[in-house]
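Quick one: structure tokens for this chain, please?
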Amino acid sequence: MSTGQRTSVDVVQGIYEAVERGDLDEIIAALDEDVEWVEPEGGTYGGTYHGPDEVMENLFTELGGEWKEFEIEQDRFIVDGHTVIALVTHCGIQAESGQRFEAPMADVWEVVNGRVIRFHHYVGSINYVNARTNDGE
């Protein structure tokens, strides 16, 4: 890209890479001040969070200690205007249970002017839940 401007997919890929590295500053820098972040109800981090501070407090500050190993395989991106649908696979070992898991997920991102204004996370596998609860044994 000759302008040096990041695409919406570039922004999303950068966030996934920052999550793997535990780079909270890079994640925060990509979020709009009015971001809406939705995690599945019933899950450990379930809820709707508004603004980068709520996202960090309720999700990322806790998430780092939960996993002994964690990786996000970026499988496919579908773009429609400001919307990026990311089909990804979360892989890792849950620290407390020791359970290894691999679970497909779908994330819907809305990126405007290089900043995330909305995120919705969809969990697609019971393996993710089982790794957290020891039910996978």
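The helical segments are 8-21, 24-30, 51-66, 126-133.
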